[in-house]
Amino acid sequence: MLDILKSASSEERHNVSTHGETGDLHHIELVTEYRLNQADIARLQWSLISFSEKSVLEMCNILISNAKYQAALEFAAGHGLDADEVLKSQWLHSSQGINEINMLFANIKYQDFVLSECVNKVGPSEDAVKALLAYGLRLTSPYRFSESDDHGNGQI
């Protein structure tokens, strides 16, 4: 964790408030000495700024939890993370209509999630329900049973 102390003297604050001057306000001191006399302390106003270290995954999760999905997608792409978690969260927090089905499901690589959503979700409209079922059927169509060669002789 990195802590920075920022100071501005009372004279600098007065100049900004009365004259609109900001040049003196940009004066930032990093304090490394603990021996300040009372006069120095009395004329300074302090504020503490803390920076804490976050992992790349934690930063991406923060963007997701703040519903900043586009920023999270760009962040994930820039740091080699899988975008599926962003897209799945975006789906779960969307209106889950036809546009979201077409836009989000097509980009989610984890097809088990998509298929589960198609089977278990009830869309907000009849058209959305039909779109969910149709998307699920498209996903499973390569796995359908082939017709038997015996044309209904009843043998397995």
Separation, N- and C-terminal Cα atoms:
68 Å
What is the percent of helical residues? Answer: 40-55%
Strand content: 5-15%
pLDDT average, as an integer?
Answer: 77
The low-confidence runs, each spanning 5 or more residues with pLDDT under 50, are 1-10, 12-35
The tally of beta strands, per DSSP, is 2
- Largest sheet, order of strands side by side? 1-2
Query: How would you describe the shape?
Result: elongated
Rg: 29 Å
What are the main properties of this structure?
disordered N terminus; two-stranded antiparallel ribbon; 2 strands; single chain; mainly alpha; 10% strand; 156 residues; 8 helices; elongated
Describe the fold and architecture.
The protein is mainly alpha-helical. It contains eight helices and two strands. The protein has a two-stranded antiparallel ribbon with strand order 1-2. α3 (about 55-65) runs antiparallel to α4 and α5 packs antiparallel against α6 (about 100-105). The longest helix is centred in the last third of the chain and has 15 residues, at about 125-140. The N and C termini lie far apart (about 70 Å). The model is unreliable at about 1-10 and about 10-35 (pLDDT under 50).
Describe the secondary-structure layout:
Layout: E1 2-9, H1 10-19, H2 38-42, E2 44-51, H3 56-65, H4 69-78, H5 84-92, H6 98-105, H7 111-120, H8 126-140
Antiparallel strand pairs: 1-2
Helix pairs in contact: 3-4, 4-5, 5-6, 7-8
Short précis:
With 156 residues, the chain is mainly α. It contains 8 helices and 2 strands; from the N terminus they run βααβαααααα.
